[in-house]
Each structure stands twice: as C-alpha cells, then as structure tokens.
C-alpha cells in the first residue's frame, strides 16, 4: 500500500520510464522522487477493450511521449486494487476479484495496478529467499486470466519499499537471519550484493513464470500492462541518490535482458531532488495536511503540469500518475470534495491527451468491493456507494476513448457513456 510518512491529505504519484538526469560530474541523480506520486515509465500496454474489430491482444509500446497500441495512442484511466493475488488464493474470495474487474470494465477503466509480491506474510508468494508457494503462484495466474477476460490490463508491482506484505524489510531480515547479510539496515536491500542476487532470482522467476491456465509465460503476456520495479523506492541512508540509482540501473537492465516486450516503471513518487532547478524543487509538497480544498487543487494542478512538462521537454516519455486520492481525514472533508479534486486531475490528463502531450493517464487509489473493510484505508472507494464518483470515472473513460479512437468511432452503448 502507498503510505508515505507525513503524507498530505491528498496525493498523487507520477510514473514514467527513466527518472534521472546526469549532473556535470557524471554521477546520475534522480530528478523526480517522492510525494504526490509520478513514476517515469518504460511501459508497454495493449489494445483497449473497446477497440473495434480486434479480439487478439497487442502489447503496448512507447512512441515518444505516448503509449501506443498498433500505432494508436493509448490513454489510461485506471485504479489500484493491491489485494488481487491475496484474495485469489482461496476459492471463496475469488468472486471479489471478478467483481472488481467487472466493475472497472463497466466504468471503462483500462488498467489495474496491483501487487505481484508477498514476501513472508500471510498468503506469501515467496515464503523464504528464492522459495515460492505454487498455490499462490496459481492464484496470480488466475488473476491475469480473469483480468484479460474482463478486458483489463495489469500494472504489476514487484516489491514493496514499505513493510506491508514483506517488502525490502523481509529480504534484509531473511539475509540477516541466515548469516550472510551485510547489515540489518533496511537500505541494505539496495547495496548488499547477496540480497540483490536474491531479488534477481525473484525477478527471473516472475518474468519467466508459465501460467498454468494458459501456458503463456508472463513475459509473453500482453495482459500485463507493465512491470513496476518497486512501490515507492527510497534509500534514506544515501541522500545523494547514488545507491538507489545504481540499484535501479542494475535491476532495469536485468529485467530487460529477460523481458524485451513489456515496459517498465521504476515506481518513484515524483519528488524533485537537490540537483533539480530551484523552481522545480519549490513544487515539492510542503505541509499540505492543513491546506483547504482549493489550496490542494491549486497545488495538484501545478504538480501535474510540471511533471507532464518534464515528460515532454526533458524525458521524452509518457507520464502516468499511478496513485491519487483524497483522504477522509483531510481538513473539513466532505465526499463532494473528492469530485472536485478528482476532476481537477482528470481534466489535466484529458487536456494533455487532446494535445498529444505526455500526460498518459491516472490511476486512482483505491477501489474495493463490499466485505473488504479490513483492506480499506481513508482513501478507499467502493463503487456504487457514491454514484457521483462512479459517474465521474465513467465520463473520464469516455473522454479518453473519444480522444483515442475519435468521437465518431466509439460505440457509446458499449462504453457505457
């Protein structure tokens, strides 16, 4: 789950492919880092569900600042449901996964971001270093098949920076308990050669996994929208960013030697680092907890605009905002505030899409179904409870589909517009 220390009552996580700039001394530093969420992406998406006349799925590719499928621009209106694999282990809870896919599809959503990791926790995929539970792997197989059945693509995150579902903390603990870890510090996940080697074993195991239901290896399955190296990577012990940058370069190169078909996102949150221009650093979030709704909307607008400009002028890559939400704990919160806040984000993405810009989409945090209160947080949404939110999401889907296919080529009844 995406919980930041001191996270403001509203937040957004951008996503793109290479999130770095080279300083004059030749050292590579992160340009965008953490907070309102922007990840720079290497992603590959496939054909949108409503594409006319195609039953076969194509991989999504990148063409400059846009995602494309079969030469046509692809825009993302997506959501987070981190719990899909966990809820697919037991037959009794699988209907929840089917329901959320069906719900997302009815609202015209295209991509779901979810965890493809669980390290040492309940329903663990990786029960110890390099040892995997086949029953849980079969659950992930089923998630991928079920997603495709509903016309949904998956953005699969591969490890957590946080302790939820094990994450880097569990890797470090395993190595320390086995007696070969260099340090008990969580950040040794990034610099300990043994831990890096074990993470590569995990990566290779995931990428080359043959789905027992389809016989297709994950690296060959276009249902997977993209891989995300890590949920919100941070290496607090090295403020220069060098350690994290070296880890990113090593792991992205390793992934690309195995899987040349999918795009890859780092998973950074979008903060500007110390080598960024001062005007960019000033866009980093301050103390937004006490900000009112208007101040948050104004801030988010600047944040999104700045990162889209980065995608267009510096990175030449699409920018996708992979988490955004408004907390029920926000100052003077009312549910109507979510409509205003979400709409400000949706409008920025839509305007960028209309202008063939780098704003490639946004992914809401998070959607759940009834009976999942234990998985909820103060950002969660249960479709059907607030019709105005459902309507807004559908409208955004329709707008992006119209840009993608042209207004005259969209069957409005099938898109539920």
UniProtKB/TrEMBL annotation:
One of its GO terms (biological process) is polysaccharide catabolic process. Its EC number is 3.2.1.78. InterPro entries: GH, Glyco_hydro_5, MAN-like. Keywords: Glycosidase, Hydrolase, Membrane, Transmembrane, Transmembrane helix. It comes from the Eukaryota. Residues 58-275 form the Glycoside hydrolase family domain. It catalyses: Random hydrolysis of (1->4)-beta-D-mannosidic linkages in mannans, galactomannans and glucomannans. Signal peptide: none annotated. One of its GO terms (molecular function) is mannan endo-1,4-beta-mannosidase activity. Coiled coil: none annotated. The keyword Transmembrane applies. The chain crosses the membrane at residues 27-45. Belongs to the glycosyl hydrolase 5 (cellulase A) family. This is mannan endo-1,4-beta-mannosidase. It comes from Musa troglodytarum.
